[in-house]
# Entry
Amino acid sequence: MSEWVKPAVLFSEAAIQERIRDIGRQVTADFDGREIAIVGILKGTVVFMADLIRAVELPLTCDFLKVEITKDQRIDISFGPETDFRERDILLLQDVVDTGVTMNFIAGHIQEDWKPRSLRIAALIDREEQRKVDCTVDYACFKVNQDGFVVGYGLDSKEKYRGVPYLGILDKRKT
Ligand code: IMP
Ligand code: MG
# Structure
């Protein structure tokens, strides 16, 4: 097992809470009284979900889905939720959107299979400049351009660091 290195602070707990409050206000205004189906992609969004749902002043439901990258690099979605999403307004939560490949794939499947009324995406970290495929993040907590691997606040590097309370950055060689 690789060593545990204390990640350098990228965004403090206070900075995160401030952005979550901003996004909560924006979401509350944008959905304009409608009920939201909040869907988090496991496991990186559990902390984000816990904070965001307390910052949104609207009726909402919470579900999670699991996405796995198979050995042959295919993406597999296990549809955890039993909720019916037809005609629902979905807010999909993702930890990091980098090349956009993962999110583009998941969003495409959700549109086709669930046929929601609308689908918006919220990401904790948006690396806009790294996109290889089309993927619009409607609510980005933080846009990041710098190198390194982001961990903490639910985000992992090989399952470590999820419990770090702030968003930290690791040198890529140490992940
Ligand atoms: P994409 O498909 O290139 O957009 O990569 C997104 C996925 O890669 C995310 O769901 C994360 O699980 C993972 N990922 C990419 N960069 C980071 C990072 O800096 N920290 C943690 N996970 C990351
Ligand atoms: Mg991960």
Strands lie at 8-11, 36-42, 60-69, 75-78, 89-97, 118-126, 139-143, 149-151, 167-170. Helices lie at 13-31, 46-52, 101-114.
